[in-house]
Specification:
By secondary structure, this protein is of the alpha/beta class. The chain is built from 6 helices and 6 strands; from the N terminus they run H-E-H-E-H-E-H-E-H-E-H-E. Helix 2 (38-53) packs parallel to helix 3 (66-77). The protein has one domain (25-165): Rossmann fold (3-Layer(aba) Sandwich), CATH 3.40.50.450. The chain has helices at residues 10-21, 38-53, 66-77, 95-101, 118-132, 145-156; strands at 27-32, 57-60, 82-85, 106-108, 135-140, 160-165. The protein has a 6-stranded parallel β-sheet with strand order 4-3-2-1-5-6, sandwiched between helices.
């Protein structure tokens, strides 16, 4: 009785190895939950600050919590290396986020998703973010369905994924 084993192709391994060993700047997506304790937000802000300060391009979304902390850190390091992609139009974002988002130089809105639920629009937005990055850093809870699906999509696109769980 023989079984076929699904092994990744050598090309996939080589591509991942090249990305890991790359010493130049990378396009890094940083996404995560809205419900993040302030101490964790400070750590995320420091991480994004360090990533951008070392020349990496940071891509995130505009929600409160993780994404807001990532924006703060990137803006302190180099606002030109930050891209924020919104799931819907700026007007659909929470009031507390709009002031911060107004300062972002590279802001992408998706008003065509305004008729969708936030969960649906966020899933589409995360797909766009993953398509633009080489590496995904994600902060989630074990029941964060949208974020875990984003990690799965990133894996299918052969991105490097670093997943941190809050719980």
């Amino acid at each position: 009785m023989s079984q076929s084993i699904d092994l990744p192709k050598v090309d996939d391994f080589l591509q991942e190895l090249a990305t890991i060993q790359q010493t130049g700047s990378k396009r890094i997506a940083l996404l995560g939950s809205r419900h993040v304790p302030i101490t964790h937000q400070h750590l995320i802000e420091m991480m994004s600050y360090a990533l951008v300060l070392s020349g990496n391009r940071l891509i995130t979304s505009g929600a409160t919590g993780t994404n807001s902390a990532a924006i703060r850190g990137a803006m302190r390091a180099d606002p030109n290396l930050l891209t924020v992609i919104l799931p819907q139009s700026l007007e659909r974002q929470p009031r507390e986020s709009r002031e911060q988002l107004a300062q972002v130089m590279h802001l992408v809105e998706n008003p065509e998703n305004d008729s969708l639920t936030l969960a649906e629009a966020s899933a589409l937005c995360n797909l766009e973010i993953v398509s633009r990055c080489q590496q995904l850093i994600c902060f989630a809870f074990h029941d964060s369905q949208t974020l875990l699906k984003t990690c799965q999509d990133a894996e299918e696109q052969r991105r490097i994924i670093t997943l941190f769980y809050f719980d």
